[in-house]
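TASK: fixed-backbone design
INPUT:
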């Protein structure tokens, strides 16, 4: 029996299969994502509470001696157990690992996949019909939106990845934001570069019903040295042409008109009330 298994037994730690099941349910409760365990103390404690772990179980550590460096490394057994459970879920395709998730969202989180989402609903006996009404992020939606837009910003067309080819600069923007209970699905998502994502979220521009760009009337009060990149004026450039956006090839996956109208009504900043 390994040192780790002996420690798990000695401290009567929960079984890994139980931890996996509770982890799936916790992911569902947290909208489909949790921080990686070393950085996410809250979720680590929340899960420990779910299992009513005693202080010894919470603080039990594995000690590894690095003889060469004459150093003793301690790893919390509970962290290790959580990691092993999440890693097993990832091997079964139920969650994405922080290394994979961070390539899409820039955050090191464990994220439910569609398969994991279905499994969590099954464990909790939630009917599949209710799936669409739950505000859950899933790895595939984030990935799919970027793919549908060919990894380009829908506004400026910028397409670039990191030098190691692992990470795209473009982001999946929610048209109706998370905070306003915007759904994490294709119809509420659009691929935007970081600058246009920001400008869209703060209301500098929005879209008309036929997917042309409309720019805030506040642009006329913008000081001349604001929003410039050399000779290029980032916000004013949007007004110079009746710009259409780059949309996916299939019309069936365009952003939904209701999401766009919501953004125009509640996020877009305009002195003149908007009329169609
Ligand atoms: Zn852009």
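OUTPUT:
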């Amino acid at each position: 029996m390994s040192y780790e298994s002996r420690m798990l037994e000695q401290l009567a730690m929960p079984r890994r299969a139980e931890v996996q099941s509770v982890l799936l349910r916790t992911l569902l409760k947290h909208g489909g994502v949790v921080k990686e365990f070393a950085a996410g103390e809250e979720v680590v404690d929340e899960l420990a509470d779910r299992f009513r772990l005693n202080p010894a179980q919470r603080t039990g550590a594995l000690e590894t001696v690095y003889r060469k460096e004459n150093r003793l490394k301690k790893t919390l057994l509970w962290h290790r157990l959580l990691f092993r459970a999440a890693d097993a879920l990832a091997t079964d395709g139920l969650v994405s690992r922080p290394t994979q998730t961070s390539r899409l969202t820039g955050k090191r989180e464990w994220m439910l996949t569609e398969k994991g989402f279905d499994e969590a609903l099954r464990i909790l006996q939630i009917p599949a019909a209710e799936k669409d009404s739950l505000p859950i992020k899933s790895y595939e939606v984030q990935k799919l939106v970027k793919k549908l837009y060919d990894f380009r910003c829908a506004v400026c067309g910028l397409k670039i990845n990191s030098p190691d080819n692992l990470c795209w600069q473009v982001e999946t923007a929610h048209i109706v934001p998370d905070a306003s209970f915007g759904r994490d699905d294709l119809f509420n998502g659009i691929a935007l570069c970081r600058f246009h994502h920001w400008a869209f979220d703060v209301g500098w521009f929005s879209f008309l019903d036929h997917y042309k760009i409309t720019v805030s009337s506040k642009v006329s009060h913008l000081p001349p040295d604001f929003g410039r990149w050399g000779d290029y004026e980032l916000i004013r450039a949007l007004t110079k042409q009746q710009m259409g956006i780059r949309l996916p090839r299939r019309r069936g996956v365009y952003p939904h008109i209701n999401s766009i109208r919501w953004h125009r009504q509640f996020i877009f900043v305009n002195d003149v009330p908007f009329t169609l």
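COMMENT: The chain is about 35% helix and 15% strand.
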